[in-house]
Design brief:
The mean pLDDT is about 95. The two termini are about 40 Å apart. Strands 2-1-5-4-3 form a 5-stranded antiparallel β-sheet, sandwiched between helices. α2 (about 20-30) packs antiparallel against α8 (about 165-175) and α12 (about 220-235) packs across α13. The chain has about 260 residues and is an alpha+beta fold. Helix content is about 45%, strand content about 15%. The chain folds into 2 domains: about 5-185, Beta-Lactamase (2-Layer Sandwich), CATH 3.30.450; about 195-250, Arc Repressor Mutant, subunit A, CATH 1.10.10.10.
C-alpha cells in the first residue's frame, strides 16, 4: 500500500465531510493510476423479489455528467453486471468491458441485457475497474469502485497487485463514510408506511390481534384494521403475515 493503514484511517477521519472523504479516496486511488471513483450505499440491496434496488446514496467522481441520471433514473443500475456480481461477492474483484475479453469477473458473464451499460462505459472509456463489495450485518450494502480511464493492455495484471489494498481502502472508506450519510439515506425504502401503519404491523409481528392492538393504542378495531389493510396494500402483500415479512425485509419495523 502506498500509505500505511494508520495514515489512511487518520486522513479519512480528519476529512470533516463526506465530500472531503471521497476527495481523499480519489487522491489515494489516483496514486495507483485510477482516475474515477464510484461509491454507493443501499439500506436494502434488493426487493423481496430479488431485484436490485436503486441506491439511496451515490457519489461519483470524474465520470460523465449523465451517469447519475442513467443509473438512478433510467434503470442502468439494475442492468449493471458489476453490481450484480457485488451482490454475490464478499471479495474485491477486477472487471473489464473491453472487447478483447480480459480474464476478469465479467468474462463470459455479459449478456444482451447488459449491453446498454457496456456500450455506455465503452463510449466513456470507463471500461476497466476494481470493485469492493461491502456487506453489513443488517443486510445493507455498499460498493466502492475505482475506474481507470484509458486503461492499457496490462491493466488486469497491474490491478491484481493492488487488489488487497483496494479491499482495505474500500472497507475503511465505508466505515468513515457511513456516519456521514443522512438518516433518510440510511433508512430509504421503496415503500412508505405511516407511523400508525408501522406501529400496527409491529404489534402484528408480536402476534397481537386487531382487537388487542386497538386496546393498546386506544383506537377502534375498524381503525386498526384499516391501518393494517392499507399497509398490506402498500407492500403488495397477500395477508397480514406476508405484510410483516415484507416490512421486515425492507427494515420498516426497526426502531
Amino acid at each position: 500500500m502506498l500509505e500505511t493503514l494508520e495514515r489512511v484511517e487518520r486522513s479519512l477521519a480528519e476529512a470533516a465531510t463526506l465530500d472531503g472523504k471521497i476527495d481523499y479516496a480519489v487522491a489515494l486511488v489516483s496514486a495507483l493510476g485510477f482516475t474515477s471513483v464510484v461509491y454507493d450505499y443501499s439500506p436494502v440491496a434488493t426487493s423481496h423479489e430479488g431485484e436490485l434496488l436503486t441506491p439511496s446514496h451515490l457519489s461519483l467522481r470524474n465520470v460523465p455528467d449523465d451517469m447519475r441520471h442513467l443509473w438512478c433514473d433510467r434503470g442502468y443500475y439494475q442492468r449493471d453486471p458489476v453490481q450484480h456480481m457485488a451482490l454475490r461477492s464478499t471479495l474485491p474483484f477486477i472487471w473489464s468491458y473491453r472487447r478483447n475479453r480480459d480474464e476478469t469477473a465479467l468474462a463470459g458473464y455479459l449478456s444482451d441485457e447488459h449491453q446498454p451499460v457496456a456500450r455506455y462505459l465503452r463510449d466513456a472509456d470507463l471500461t476497466c475497474g476494481v470493485t469492493v463489495p461491502i456487506h453489513r450485518t443488517r443486510g445493507d450494502m455498499a460498493t466502492f469502485t475505482a475506474i481507470r480511464r484509458g486503461a492499457r493492455k496490462d491493466f488486469v495484471r497491474d490491478a491484481r497487485h493492488h487488489l488487497a489494498d483496494f479491499g482495505l481502502v474500500g472497507q475503511l472508506f465505508h466505515e468513515h463514510a457511513y456516519p456521514m450519510l443522512s438518516e433518510k439515506e440510511k433508512r430509504a425504502a421503496p415503500v412508505r408506511l405511516t407511523p400508525r401503519e408501522r406501529e400496527c404491523l409491529l404489534y402484528s409481528a408480536e402476534g397481537l390481534t386487531a382487537k388487542e392492538i386497538a386496546h393498546r393504542l386506544g383506537r377502534a378495531v375498524p381503525t386498526v384494521t384499516l391501518h393494517i389493510n392499507t399497509a398490506i396494500r402498500k407492500l403488495g402483500a397477500r395477508n397480514r403475515l406476508h405484510a410483516v415479512i415484507l416490512a421486515n425485509h425492507y427494515r420498516l419495523l426497526e426502531a
